[in-house]
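BUG-284 | component: ligand-complex export | severity: low

The export step for beta-D-glucopyranose jobs runs without errors, but we want the raw record kept on the ticket for reference. Input record follows.
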Amino acid sequence: MPNHLLLRESGSQPINGNFCFHLYERQLSLEGIELNVNISDVVLKTFTNSSKNITIGGASKPVDCFSKYRVNIVVPYRRRPEQLRVFLHYLHRYLQLQEIDYRIIVVEQSPEMHFNRGKLFNVGFVESQKRFPSDCYIFHDVDLIPLSLNNIYACTKMPRHLSSAVDTFDYELPYCGIFGGAVAITSQHFQSINGFSNLFYGWGGEDDDLYFRVSQAELGVVRFEKNVAKYKMLRHEKEVPNPNRFVTMKKNKIIHAVEGLNNLNYTMLSYELKSLYTLMRVHL
Ligand code: BGC
């Protein structure tokens, strides 16, 4: 598995000291970071105060070695504070154990329109590339919790579907083109497929469309074994599926090349460096 992982941007070398020995080389386990699915504001505050190695904006990197992997993690968000607390409380500890050089970026959509997951990812990508560019992106839902430390949060040569074994699907793929939840892709690949579609307002379809874009570009998709790609989905009410998504998907098969990152428009409402994440509030 490790051989598939891409090292951080070429040319980067540790100035002093050595590259980290990552988990697969050290055989560590998740011990010590059990998942708590009820995290109050107070608990999160205490966690923040005790997390000396997380810099404002929700970035962190190992202190005594140079990480081989650098990644921006983009999380689309609206009105799920309980889940965001659980996610941040768990993921920071998880990524630090993996010795990743990372930043968590939350892109929050204003209330007027239906939620547009794909467009929020596009905004997160474009804005992050301006401010703290990375060669590797992970597009991640807030309700998904990785359960194996061997699921290294880094890019592979081919786009990777990280969350291919989710508990709510009995750890099976419901269909072979499923590409939602958490996906890792290089910036170069993401740009080459023109990002996500901007057209999917409401639940569903944008991830299937991304799979189509990746397939059209013949990039291939990689998934790690089930025991590595295991996730827990946090409980929430099921969203109402967008009934138009199939029509949009069909149309997109023709227009995908001209619709996506290249015609993205949005209004940035605010940009804030929170203690545990970078927050971008946007109107779509
Ligand atoms: C939707 C996808 C979703 C999948 C699994 C499909 O019908 O179009 O967006 O990820 O179901 O829930």
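Assignee comment: Attached the raw record above. The radius of gyration is 18 Å.
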